[in-house]
């Protein structure tokens, strides 16, 4: 809507004034990477969140301008917002933003964050650029030198069920999709000392192909995908999961022949004498007040969470072994919905604003 200037404001009706007030209170955001899988989901969530207003959305510099409903009709059938090619000169146009979301390649997020922060704009980054606190750990996981390691100190890791975010912060690192599934599954056991001290949890996680992003390549083309482990013993999410759980893990990702969702099977050795009842009590307590994470008594499946912001857990104990099966949508709780959850909390809005109706 167009805001009337101050001269004409005296003549506006109470209704108009209320509308102007509402508009002025909206949190003004931009999304970079809006033509990608997680970015388009995020614009869809923001568009349906009455506290936020997406003032600009961008694809890469090579893109041609297109409305979001043409890029992602299933998500944004009613969204006329035009996605423009990103140029650095846009930064000058975006002065009055409250926040920016990056759904970008790690390298691009790593480069761009400092420029927004310097302008007083909060950054919510869905990439892996700010999930580690040391340049060595980052290089080992991502294979390149971070251009702005000085920002690590201020980056807050936004695994929402386990982190108290400081809303005064400027940089929020949204966890990876596999690390979210695995950490939510194992954190209650690790935090409560249920596991043997040297337990090394084994996580095998199957992901749909959207986890690899929208760019076409041979590995993810329809006829090439069957069911295949990859990155065995060296996937970049292994150190992120280990950091979250404060212990080494064995993590094996598997690419599956479906579009979206992760099913992670997480196995760990329990301390002698720990009972099934104790374990289940601890999981119920850990997630009794978490609207987007629920512990279920019945089997959980990817179809139960696809297109929702939920993570569902199913806990089993037998003969000293813990098995937790965890499912989530890699593009939602594994990316866009978790970013929405974090932004809601940082701006003092209800945690699930914009996410309701999708679970
Ligand atoms: N897919 C997933 O399940 C998850 C992804 N992530 C992370 O989120 C980020 C985005 O992932 P995803 O949505 O899958 O990626 P996509 O490949 O689907 O989309 C990438 C987006 O970034 C844009 N882009 C690429 N290069 C540049 C550049 N140099 N400058 C500006 N824009 C650029 C693309 O524009 P264009 O369309 O013009 O190329 C596109 O909009 C990645 O860091 C990924 O690791 C995190 C958790 C889960
Ligand atoms: C199926 C598939 O290829 N998945 C991606 C994970 C995507 C993701 O979550 O990326 P970040 O968390 O690092 O941002 C991969 O294994 O590289």
UniProtKB/TrEMBL annotation:
The lineage of its organism: Bacteria, Pseudomonadati, Pseudomonadota, Gammaproteobacteria, Alteromonadales. SMART domains: Semialdhyde_dh (SM00859). It is found in: Cytoplasm. Catalyzes the NADPH-dependent reduction of N-acetyl-5-glutamyl phosphate to yield N-acetyl-L-glutamate 5-semialdehyde. It catalyses: N-acetyl-L-glutamate 5-semialdehyde + phosphate + NADP(+) = N-acetyl-L-glutamyl 5-phosphate + NADPH + H(+). Transmembrane segments: none annotated. NCBIfam families: argC. This is N-acetyl-gamma-glutamyl-phosphate reductase. Its EC number is 1.2.1.38. It comes from Aliidiomarina sanyensis. The active site is at residue 177. Pathway: Amino-acid biosynthesis; L-arginine biosynthesis; N(2)-acetyl-L-ornithine from L-glutamate: step 3/4. PANTHER family: N-ACETYL-GAMMA-GLUTAMYL-PHOSPHATE REDUCTASE, CHLOROPLASTIC-RELATED (PTHR32338:SF10), N-ACETYL-GAMMA-GLUTAMYL-PHOSPHATE REDUCTASE, CHLOROPLASTIC-RELATED-RELATED (PTHR32338). Residues 28-170 form the Semialdehyde dehydrogenase NAD-binding domain. Gene3D superfamilies: Dihydrodipicolinate Reductase, domain 2, NAD(P)-binding Rossmann-like Domain. HAMAP family: ArgC_type1. GO terms for molecular function: N-acetyl-gamma-glutamyl-phosphate reductase activity; NAD binding; NADP+ binding. Its main location: cytoplasm. One of its GO terms (biological process) is L-arginine biosynthetic process. Keywords: Amino-acid biosynthesis, Arginine biosynthesis, Cytoplasm, NADP, Oxidoreductase.
């Amino acid at each position: 809507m167009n805001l009337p200037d101050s001269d004409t404001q005296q003549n506006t009706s109470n209704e108009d004034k209320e509308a102007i007030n509402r508009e002025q209170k909206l949190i003004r955001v931009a999304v970079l990477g809006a033509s990608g899988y997680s970015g388009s989901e995020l614009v869809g969530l923001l568009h349906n969140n009455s506290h936020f207003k997406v003032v600009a959305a961008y694809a890469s510099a090579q893109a041609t301008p297109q409305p979001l409903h043409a890029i992602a009709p299933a998500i944004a059938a009613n969204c006329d917002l035009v996605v423009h090619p990103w140029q650095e000169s846009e930064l000058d146009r975006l002065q009055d933003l409250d926040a920016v979301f990056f759904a970008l390649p790690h390298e691009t997020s790593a480069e761009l964050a400092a420029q927004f922060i310097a302008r007083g704009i909060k950054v919510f980054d869905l990439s892996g650029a700010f999930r580690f606190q040391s340049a060595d750990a980052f290089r080992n996981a991502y294979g390149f030198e971070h251009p702005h390691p000085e920002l690590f100190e201020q980056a807050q890791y936004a695994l929402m069920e386990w982190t108290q975010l400081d809303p005064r912060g400027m940089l929020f690192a949204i966890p990876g999709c596999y690390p979210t599934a695995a950490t939510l599954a194992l954190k209650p056991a690790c935090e409560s000392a249920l596991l043997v001290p040297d337990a090394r949890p084994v996580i095998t996680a199957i992901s749909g192909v959207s986890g690899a992003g929208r760019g076409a390549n041979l590995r993810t083309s329809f006829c090439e995908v069957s069911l295949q482990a990859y990155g065995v013993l060296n996937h970049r999410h292994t150190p992120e999961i280990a950091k979250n759980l404060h212990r080494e893990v064995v993590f094996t990702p598997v690419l599956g022949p479906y579009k979206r969702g992760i099913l992670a099977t997480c196995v760990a050795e329990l301390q002698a004498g720990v009972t099934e009842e104790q374990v289940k009590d601890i999981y119920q307590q850990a997630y009794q007040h978490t609207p987007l994470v629920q512990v279920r008594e019945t089997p959980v499946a990817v179809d139960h969470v696809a297109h929702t912001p939920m993570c569902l857990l199913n806990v089993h104990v037998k003969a000293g072994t813990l098995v937790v099966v965890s499912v989530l949508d890699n593009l939602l709780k594994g990316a866009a919905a978790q970013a929405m959850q974090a932004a809601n909390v940082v701006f003092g809005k209800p945690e699930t604003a914009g996410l309701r109706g999708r679970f």
